[in-house]
Amino acid sequence: MIKVERRPVSDPGIDENAKKLTPEQIEGVIRHVLEKESAGRLRTFVETCIHCGLCSDACHYYLAYKRDPSYSPVAKVRLTLWDMIRRKYRVDAESIKMYARISYAECNICKRCSMYCPFGIDIAYLMTVVRRICGLLGVVPQYLQDQGNSHMYTYSQSWVPQDDWVDTALWLEDELRMDIRNGRIPFDKEGAEVMYSPHSLEAKFKTNLLTNIAKIMNVAGVDWTMPSFDGWDSTNQAMHVGDYETMGMVERMHFEAAMRLKVKKIITSE
Amino acid sequence: MFEFLTSPAVYQFIRGPLVWLSFMIFIGGNLYKFLSMLSLAKKDKVVFPYISLKYSLRSILHWIIPFASTNWRKRPGMTVITFFFHTCLLVTPVFLIAHNALIKESWNFRLWTIPETIADVMTVVVILCALIFLMRRLVVPEVKFVTFGTDYLILSLAVLPFITGFLAYHQLLFAYELMGTLHILAGELMLIAIPFTRLNHMVYFWFTRAYTGSEFGAVRHTRDY
Fold first, then answer.
1. Residue A160: CB atoms within 10 Å
2. Which of A169, A175, A255, B108 is found 20 to 30 A from A229 (Cα to Cα)?
3. B183 in Cβ contact with B164 (< 8 Å)
4. Do the Cβ atoms of A51 and B70 come within 8 Å?
5. In which band, very low, low, confident or very high, does the pLDDT at A3 lie, cut at 50, 70 and 90?
6. Contacts of residue B207 in chain A, CB cutoff 8 Å?
């Protein structure tokens, strides 16, 4: 693996978990993701890239790091996917730490590079494949993995269980009535026009944002509702972890909530 | 070596059976690549559900016309070089008088041809553009960072038929017989290499663009150019 300049950053989710990896586990996971889970897109994109570097200017990391070539989109593929493929999946834990750092912390999957690539190679997708490998190996930045775990345990991103969610919305409604006479935060209104699904933080430390939305909806006279049951949270950090099993569950719950309430539209925040 | 390469038997072989063989590998290999890509694309959950003819064509058109996409406009120098390189690379061999004379001898038909002087200039253009590509690989940091031996190899494979063709036409460097032989060999090597190296972007270009164009247009309702 070639040397790239990086300021060392310690993250228990990456450093501690990488210590537990065995070579067989690493090889097995990479083989599973690259050969079983991925198919046409991965192979075609990797075989088509002509290494021209025209994607570089698309990347805000590349520009922000003063055009350091190791931050260009194609360089990130070169340091992760090509590296695994060239070494026939036999890579060590240090490499996995590097892959995790690059895919989680040096790319935020914005897809701008796909708009710059003459072949339309979806480099962001290639980075999600790398994240999937790191996610399955459990080598994930701790804060992100924590949010992923929260989705598993509480069905919301920030450890807000369903009873807390209802409780929060009820006291927000009380406070709303100081500003708007008979203001309502209507739960479970079947057949409403709109289901508003908040960001998880609106039920935790940024409740004023939910109040703002409630004010807008009340004053505008929108026929709106929110689910009192699980599926209210619109966020999905499991997707960023690479935990597609939890991601699927979260996404399904969200849409099933809308189906159950028979709403016409879903409005999400931020 | 020189005598071996210029012996009539070798000449007959490389201008006869080897041409057939390389064209068969070129066509068969590309067909195989295409079919294997198709079967892999079926396994990928999102490729076929996303694909849309309208947005595929929109995407391809914006990228095969110079300056029709944002990145082509942001990199005018690279755009001009790329389009000159690829146009001359494809047009020169197909419409060259000498090549068409050979086709006429064998099958008694020929395509339109371009005047020899223009073909000569186009050959030089290909070689110069390839030199610029080579310089980019050696000098530009973001390109240098992702350059491997294979990148030099495929660049040489693409440009060798033009260098040898130019030298043979002007009867430079080696005797015409040897240079001609080398030229045919270089062309055959390139044809054989296309399906099995990243030169197959010639085939894949249309499909990667079609997929991304469809994903951006039909699914995300935005532009990819």
1. 21
2. A175
3. yes
4. no
5. low
6. 44
Condensed to tens digits (0 to 9), the pLDDT of residues A85-129 reads 999 999 999 999 999 999 999 999 999 999 999 999 999 999 999
Q: Between B59, B145, B204, which is nearest A48 by CB?
A: B204
CB contact under 8 A, A115 and B224: yes
Tell me the residue ranges of DSSP E strands in A212-270: 224-225, 265-268
The vertex-B156 CA angle with B155 and B157, nearest 5°, equals 90
Q: Is residue B91 very low, low, confident or very high in pLDDT (cuts 50, 70, 90)? A: very high
- The size of chain B, in residues, is 225
How far off is chain A from B85, nearest CA to CA, in Å? 14
Give the mutation candidate from B48, B72, B142 for the A interface (greatest A CB count, under 10 A).
B142
Sign of CA dihedral B130, B132, B138, B143: negative
Window 78-107 of A, Cβ < 8 Å to B: 78
User: How far from chain centre, in Å, is Cα A54?
Assistant: 26
Give domain limits for chain A. Answer: 12-140, 148-268
Which residues of B are less than 8 Å from A122 in CB distance?
211-212, 215
User: CA-to-CA distance for B184 and B99, rounded, in angstroms?
Assistant: 11
Nearest to A53 among B74, B146, B212 (CB): B146
Q: What mean pLDDT, rounded, does chain A reach? A: 93
- Interchain CB contact of B196 with A (< 8 Å): no
Q: Over 70: is that where the pLDDT of A198 sits?
A: yes
pLDDT of residue B57 exceeding 70: yes
Indicate whether B193 pLDDT > 90. Answer: yes
User: Which token pair is A228?
Assistant: 């009192």
User: Would you call B71 an interface residue with chain A, using a CB distance cutoff of 8 Å?
Assistant: yes
Nearest to A50 among B78, B198, B216 (CB): B198
**pLDDT value of position B32:** 94
Q: Residue A2: its pLDDT value, please?
A: 60
* Architecture category of domain A12-140 in CATH: Orthogonal Bundle (1.10)
Going by C-alpha positions, the residue among A169, A163, A1, A196 that lies closest to residue A81 is: A1
Could you read off the pLDDT of B124-165 as tens digits, one per residue?
999 999 999 999 999 999 999 999 999 999 999 999 999 999
Does residue B161 contact residue B126 with C-beta atoms inside 8 Å?
A: no
Q: Terminal CA-to-CA distance of chain B, rounded, Å?
A: 51
pLDDT confidence bin for A1, thresholds 50/70/90:
very low
A-facing residues of B in 86-145 (CB < 8 A) are: 136, 140-145
Instruction: Please indicate whether, in this complex, the C-beta atoms of A45 and B224 are within 8 angstroms of each other.
Output: no
ipTM of the complex: 0.89
